[in-house]
Amino acid sequence: MKEWASQLEKEMVREDQPADLTTVNVAMQKQQMIETEMIKKAQHIDQLMEMEPQLEEMHPDELEDIRAHRLAVQEQLQRLQAPLGDRRRQLERKKAAFQFGRDVDDEKLWIAERLHLAHAKQLGENLPDCHRLQKNAQLLTNEVENHEPWIERICSNGRELIDAGHENSAAFEQRIAELRDAWQELKDAIKDRKDRLAESEKAHQFLYDCGEAEAWMSEQELYMMQ
Question: Cβ(66)–Cβ(38) under 8 Å?
């Protein structure tokens, strides 16, 4: 047990810092395993302490050595508690930063895909086709509106890192601004598309009405000629 604690102390000194979300997740899994093992070791120490009266009867000459060993290991484990707690907080801090960066990248891709749809040039070849495109534009609007809380959540996560005094706060400010700008561009593009489709609908409706009127007048002419 003492050897395990000594080895852990050495590992914590020379351990490499995670460089991305994948490696920080691996490090956090390892951290969880260490913390679980620490609990088991502490329970084992408690069991040894409870057994000391029995050991005193069975091995009175060895009791002092056993007790000294237990106390040494107990002290060593206690020394590891604070560094392990600090390490967990550092890993959580790094994971939050890496996750924020990943989320921003993912959302910018998501926005780019919808922006391509919002910039579509087709305005409908006729009135039914225009109505079909308007329906698609409304579906896109609904999707974007439903997605907006997640965008706000990501920006809030970045703001929490900044407020906590993260060393990369300036970069996080820029990423938040980039995401908000991209989001606003998407919303503006959708509004513009809906406006253009509305104008197209008016034009197609006018042509449709003219066609209907022309057909009606033709019918009336035929009726008058009879």
Answer: no
Separation of alpha carbons 56 and 47, rounded Å: 14
Domain membership of residue 202 (yes or no) is yes
Q: Which residues contact 210 (CB under 8 A, 6 or more apart)?
A: none
Q: Is the pLDDT of residue 13 over 60?
A: no
Please indicate, yes or no, whether residues 126 and 77 belong to a single structural domain of this protein.
no
User: How many structural domains does the chain have?
Assistant: 2
Q: Where among 31, 66, 99 does a domain terminate?
A: 99
Residue 113 has phi, psi (to 5 degrees) of: -65, -45
CA distance 150 to 180: 12
Task: Report the residue count for the chain.
Answer: 226
CATH number at residue 79: 1.20.58.60
Residue 5 has, within 13 A of its CA and on its CB side, a CA count of 21
Q: Do 94 and 125 fall within a single domain?
A: no
Query: Where does the chain have alpha helices with state H?
Result: 2-14, 21-58, 63-118, 127-163, 169-225
Domain that holds residue 164: 120-225
What would the pLDDT profile of 64-123 be if each residue is shown by its tens digit?
776 777 777 778 788 888 888 888 999 999 999 999 999 999 999 999 999 999 999 999
One-letter amino acid identity for 76? Q
Report residue 216 as tokens: 């009606």
